[in-house]
Backbone:
């Protein structure tokens, strides 16, 4: 399913330990509410590319986007300027935003004859009405599809600014249908005032893609991807967790709950625990340039088992990501290797005024493989070129690792807003390597970048940038023995599974929030090899449901490896993920 759901529910029971971790309720309050606001004035009766009217094109675009909505998304429909009411009061909500509207949306916007006279185009009042219909709680967005120039007070730019000035959870995205000159400038300013994204659409096909892509962006929500697990405020109050993904909300240093303490109990002796934490920096004009920092520290009793830190700024690095293996992969401390229980603390290290943020945390226990050769794999050559030709349909990246869509080999089109980071994933097997390349258009004043992170969330390829043209990167060949390499990029490529490709863009602060196109190409090379001889693979017993040793192989599929087995054992994917709205969503 292409849409990023605001709630993830599976059938297995949750097994998070004895801490009594809360689970979000499965109701519509956890969805993103979106109002599609469509211009139905006389100007929409004009012809557009494709031999149909703009209104007919809008109807088809809404219907097509509705067919791809998820069952948890709350999307409504409103029109203005249709001639069904007098003057500047001519705006109607055809469908209130609520769960389960996808079927009704397909037929709600029926093309009809335009008003006999041009009448009014009450865009400002329509924005106000849409804001009222969306309510005041949770992440919300207005997606405006417009052609005609506004004719009523208030000015739509003023109305958009007033709606979002004191409401960080509301965004106004705008699609300009066949607009140029002053009309286009007005709509761009509406999007800027509403902290949203502006897109041009010339022709029916472009409008369909714009509505679908903008609705995808509007319904994205920052999810932890697992279950909410509030960490303790001290080591003595640690929350018990298991392998999987969870999230906590942490404030900056000096504020309440700036760190969360957790305790992890190993299932197998001498296993490796991979711990990761990431935070998405909110795009807030008040905090552009402010740094956000994360630190992970692990303990075996009072013995330190290492730490990892990461920092980023709101203008250049939208996702801050820290990774820590316990014990250290190259020179592990025996006390940390043998300890049955490991303490982990995740903390914010910034002292800026950036508010409390949801932090996505991930832990994976990897069974030992003592019979595997621990000689690092030799450095690879440059690898084959990654093709960026003939890209397919637009692929929307995710705001978090847990939501990342899988990419097939080949070239894919994308759209990104400067300041944003999008996450994708590509399966890579043992003995294989990943190549990825990104291309941004010249003359846009945008610096694009790409980086790669391993299945256990270690950095494999550091951020590489390009201000014009393309940049290409390659991972080392994936091998268990890489873990002892003194080269960090090689050591990180020590496990098969989903490798994450992160694409970012930055630009001058004065640049408007318009989407920039890019092309992302990915390729996997090399013959897949058998997985290592793990001792005591973590898979469930059919009789007992508990972890047992298994010699079964994954049949050549990298994702059915130790990471997937852990998810089966603990059923952490069964938790309902609570939403956290970002400034971008």
Residues:
């Amino acid at each position: 399913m292409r849409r990023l759901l605001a709630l993830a529910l599976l059938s297995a029971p949750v097994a998070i330990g004895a801490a009594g971790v809360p689970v979000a309720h499965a109701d519509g309050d956890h969805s993103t509410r979106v109002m599609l606001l469509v211009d139905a004035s006389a100007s929409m009766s004009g012809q557009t590319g494709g031999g149909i009217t703009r209104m007919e094109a809008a109807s088809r675009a809404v219907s097509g986007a509705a067919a791809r909505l998820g069952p948890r998304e709350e999307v409504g429909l409103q029109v203005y300027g249709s001639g069904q009411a007098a003057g500047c009061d001519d705006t109607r909500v055809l469908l209130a935003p609520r769960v389960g509207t996808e079927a009704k949306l397909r037929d709600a916007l029926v093309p009809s004859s335009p008003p006999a006279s041009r009448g009014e185009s009450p865009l400002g009042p329509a924005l106000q009405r849409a804001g009222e219909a969306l309510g005041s709680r949770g992440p919300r967005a207005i997606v405006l599809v417009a052609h005609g120039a506004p004719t009523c007070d208030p000015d739509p730019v003023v109305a958009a600014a007033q709606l979002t000035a004191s409401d960080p959870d509301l965004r106004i995205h705008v699609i300009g249908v066949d607009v140029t000159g002053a009309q286009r400038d007005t709509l761009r300013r509406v999007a800027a005032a509403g902290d949203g994204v502006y897109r041009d659409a010339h022709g029916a096909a472009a409008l369909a893609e714009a509505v679908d892509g903008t609705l995808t962006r509007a319904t994205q929500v920052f999810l932890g991807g697992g279950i909410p697990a509030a960490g303790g405020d001290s080591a003595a109050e640690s929350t018990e967790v298991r392998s999987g993904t969870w999230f906590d909300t942490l404030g900056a240093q000096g504020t309440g709950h700036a760190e969360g303490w957790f305790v992890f109990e190993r299932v197998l002796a001498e296993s490796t625990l991979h711990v990761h934490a990431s935070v998405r920096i909110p795009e807030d004009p008040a905090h552009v340039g402010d740094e956000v920092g994360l630190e992970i520290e692990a303990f075996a009793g009072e013995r330190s088992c290492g730490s990892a830190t990461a920092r980023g700024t709101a203008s250049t690095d939208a996702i801050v990501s820290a990774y820590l293996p316990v014990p250290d992969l190259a020179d592990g401390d025996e006390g940390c290797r043998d300890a049955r229980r490991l303490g982990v603390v995740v903390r914010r290290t910034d002292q800026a005024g950036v508010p409390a943020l949801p932090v996505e945390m991930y832990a994976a226990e990897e069974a030992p493989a003592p019979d595997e050769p621990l000689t690092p794999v030799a450095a690879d050559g440059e690898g084959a070129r990654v093709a960026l030709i003939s890209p397919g349909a637009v692929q929307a990246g995710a705001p978090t690792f847990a939501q990342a869509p899988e990419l097939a080999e080949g070239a894919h089109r994308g759209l990104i807003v400067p300041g944003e980071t999008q996450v994708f994933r590509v399966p890579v097997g043992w003995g294989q390597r990943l190549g990825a390349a990104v291309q941004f258009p010249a003359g846009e004043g945008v610096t694009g970048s790409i980086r790669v992170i391993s299945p256990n969330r270690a950095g494999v390829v550091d951020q590489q940038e390009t201000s014009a043209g393309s940049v290409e990167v390659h991972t080392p060949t994936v091998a268990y023995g890489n873990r002892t390499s003194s080269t960090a990029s090689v050591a990180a490529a020590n496990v098969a599974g989903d490798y994450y490709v992160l694409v970012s863009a930055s630009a001058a602060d004065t640049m408007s929030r318009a989407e920039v196109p890019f092309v992302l190409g990915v390729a996997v090379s090399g013959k897949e090899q058998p997985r290592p001889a793990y001792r005591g693979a973590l898979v469930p017993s059919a009789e007992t449901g508990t972890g047992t040793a298994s010699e079964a192989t994954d049949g050549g599929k990298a994702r059915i490896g130790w990471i997937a087995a852990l998810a089966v054992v603990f059923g952490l994917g069964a938790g309902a993920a609570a939403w956290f709205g970002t400034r971008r969503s």
Q: What stands out?
A: The radius of gyration is 25 Å. Confidence is low (pLDDT under 50) at residues 1-30, 113-117, 537-585.
